[in-house]
Amino acid sequence: MIFIAPADPSLEKYPGQAFKVPLPDGWQVIVSGKALVDDIKKANDQDLSFEDALTKLLQTDYTLGRPARTDPYHIDVVQTPLTRNLGARFEDLRDEIKAAFADEIPAKESVWMKVSMLYTVMNIVSRTSNRYFVGTPLCRDPDYIKLNIEFTIDAFNGAQTLQRYPGFLKPLVRRFLTNVPACVARATKHLEPIIKERLRKEEEYRSTDWPGKLNDLISWLLDEANTEDRRKDIVYNIVSRVLAVNFAAIHTTSVTFTNSLYYLAANPHIVEPLREEVQACVEEHGWTKAGMGQMRKLDSFMKEAQRLVGVGGLVMSRMAMKDFTFSDGTVVPAGTIVHTASYALHHDADVYEEPESLNAFRFSNKRVKEGEGYKHQMVAQDPSYALFGIGGKHMCPGRFFAVNELKALLGHVLLTYDIKFENNTGVPPPHWDGAGVTPNSTALVMFRKRAV
């Protein structure tokens, strides 16, 4: 966890509300409290820009590709066809989950198997997500799986490297001091033949709706690339966007799933209520999107596990495009990056009763009240919960896919395995790097196939 003290006398009269943090390339400001968070949510992009903050923090022009920033039509794809087709493609998702777990965690009924969790989870999540994105056999190709995991890490590391150099040097830094170009080249090797075959089919049938067209991310991106400008350098444009969607999907889902497994292994008393719910929902609805929607206790448990740890201490990053004045009088100058303190919010005793303790059904218990059925879901806008953003138009567009995938993954574990920590140890401490946090990468979880 990071601890921040006021660094500017002008901010000292707002203790716990606004703090300056020195970084190598400038100051960043962290705010907390409902009033200031609401100021960020209400601000327009001309005052506080999400896109410009992302461009600076992730160096997106050099990591995810400039076209993906200047014309981010892949976000429209995530919001619409990727989300809407989840029900139609859920059987594929389920099939890959079964196959991936059988390969990665081939536990037997009679013997406990020790599994190094984080990297195993990344392999499973990469396979499962890409079954939906690009289909078989590519989603099972070892190099393609490894590539998408490595690209997530290389893009983060590359952004940190690029931030240290002035703009005119960044193209050279990207080429010689980051692994991003090598990742793009590897992705192109895998994806170019598929993209060119789709383009050939379009030419053959003189239509984007040709017989046998596959219902996947590549098709959805090609459908959205429906102008002359978007068709320029089409292979790179599609490849860079497939990488960008994987970048967003694999990291957060892997962290969330690993945290959930750690809390499940450390709290055996919650296994049976969750298992009973999953079994009942599957018996009634099958392994479907509708079935996932009925798993309220599972949704609550995952949301609570992420409340305790999360994927970082800060969210809602914005860049001040001009001097911006908050409602309490705090002024941040143009060019400043502003964040919200999510970890502090999630551990605030005024917001959560016993905030340091796991209450697996904290949120599902709230949903039994009339009119509260949707409000406390993991995907819902909630001013007290910040995993996908506290609210507003910049909430994560892929959260519906992510949460349904997570339920299917965790539901499979509950019905297929018994899990525990050796010697009944508690949740291993996560690794904090500044404001970023990842689950413990060396912890082992023990799996045994359930006798059913």
TrEMBL record:
<dbReference type="Pfam" id="PF00067">
    <property type="entry name" value="p450"/>
</dbReference>
<feature type="binding site" description="axial binding residue">
    <location>
        <position position="396"/>
    </location>
    <ligand>
        <name>heme</name>
    </ligand>
</feature>
<keyword id="KW-0408">Iron</keyword>
<keyword id="KW-0503">Monooxygenase</keyword>
<dbReference type="GO" id="GO:0016705">
    <property type="term" value="F:oxidoreductase activity, acting on paired donors, with incorporation or reduction of molecular oxygen"/>
</dbReference>
<dbReference type="InterPro" id="IPR001128">
    <property type="entry name" value="Cyt_P450"/>
</dbReference>
<dbReference type="InterPro" id="IPR036396">
    <property type="entry name" value="Cyt_P450_sf"/>
</dbReference>
<keyword id="KW-0560">Oxidoreductase</keyword>
<dbReference type="GO" id="GO:0020037">
    <property type="term" value="F:heme binding"/>
</dbReference>
<keyword id="KW-0349">Heme</keyword>
<dbReference type="GO" id="GO:0005506">
    <property type="term" value="F:iron ion binding"/>
</dbReference>
<dbReference type="InterPro" id="IPR002403">
    <property type="entry name" value="Cyt_P450_E_grp-IV"/>
</dbReference>
<comment type="similarity">
    <text>Belongs to the cytochrome P450 family.</text>
</comment>
<dbReference type="GO" id="GO:0004497">
    <property type="term" value="F:monooxygenase activity"/>
</dbReference>
<protein>
    <recommendedName>
        <fullName>Cytochrome P450</fullName>
    </recommendedName>
</protein>
<keyword id="KW-0479">Metal-binding</keyword>
